[in-house]
């Protein structure tokens, strides 16, 4: 059985997490952010150390490991009854992040719509990331060089994923608006039948 899925898509700092948390609080939606899964790992474990090594350089964690961890997390959520695939829609944020991941997830996901939070102003993204680094203790956002690398990784590896799913499934959102306006825009495109 494939999970009915909405993808939150956009550069680091575009506001995927903010929107995902709000939508995930609505009954019938289950939000899972891949970055949150990584950050919740014990950083002394092998996989936790690997995450630190890659994320602090602004790089992606290897695909096999990422998909395996994602699958384990989803399975746990199903067992615990937090995600009920027969009635809930999955709202994914931060995954898939490249074409290989998109292909690996094909067998699990029935992607209904992709919300592309786009922000043409790179400087605005950098500002947002610096602010959140202070608030959330995020090593990958701690210095400007790493931030720039993350934005380059996004352009090079992640943005081609949009073409993989096809423009007919992509809804473009202006990520520079206020969160409530972006939310209104997203919800206006949500169809759950
Ligand atoms: P943001 O919300 O700023 O886009 P995330 O919190 O999603 O960032 O991710 C933080 C870090 O975790 C990334 O820089 C990357 O190293 C790692 N990561 C998160 N999701 C993935 C993924 N799908 N594949 C590989 N690495 C990932």
Provide keyphrases for this structure:
193 residues; 9 helices; globular; binds adenosine-5'-diphosphate; 49% helix; 5 strands; alpha/beta; Rossmann fold
Protein described:
- With 193 residues, the chain is of the alpha/beta class.
- The protein has a single domain (3-187), classed as Rossmann fold (3-Layer(aba) Sandwich), CATH 3.40.50.
- It has 9 helices and 5 strands, in the order E-H-E-H-H-H-E-H-E-H-H-H-E-H.
- The protein has helices at residues 16-24, 34-39, 46-55, 63-79, 99-105, 122-136, 144-158, 161-165, 179-189; strands at 3-10, 29-33, 89-93, 109-118, 170-174.
- It has a 5-stranded parallel sheet.
- Helix 4 runs parallel beside helix 5 (99-105) and helix 6 crosses helix 7 (144-158).
- It is globular.
- The chain starts with a strand and ends with a helix.
- The structure holds adenosine-5'-diphosphate (ADP).
């Amino acid at each position: 059985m494939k999970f009915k899925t909405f993808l939150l898509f956009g550069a680091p700092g575009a506001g995927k997490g903010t929107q995902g948390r709000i939508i995930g609080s609505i009954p019938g939606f289950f939000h899972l952010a891949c970055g949150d899964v990584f950050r919740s790992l014990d950083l002394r474990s092998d996989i936790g150390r690997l995450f630190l090594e890659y994320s602090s350089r602004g790089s992606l964690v290897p695909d096999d490991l990422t998909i395996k961890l994602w699958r384990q997390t989803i399975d746990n959520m199903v067992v615990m009854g937090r995600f009920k695939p027969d009635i809930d829609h999955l709202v994914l944020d931060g995954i898939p992040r490249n074409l290989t991941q998109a292909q690996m997830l094909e067998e699990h996901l029935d992607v209904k719509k992709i919300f592309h939070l786009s922000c043409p102003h790179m400087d605005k993204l950098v500002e947002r990331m610096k602010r959140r680094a202070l608030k959330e203790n995020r090593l990958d956002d701690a210095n400007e060089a790493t931030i720039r690398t993350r934005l380059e990784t996004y352009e090079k590896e992640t943005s081609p994923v949009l073409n993989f799913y096809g423009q007919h499934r992509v809804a473009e959102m202006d990520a520079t608006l206020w969160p409530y306006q972006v939310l209104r825009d997203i919800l206006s495109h949500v169809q759950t039948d």
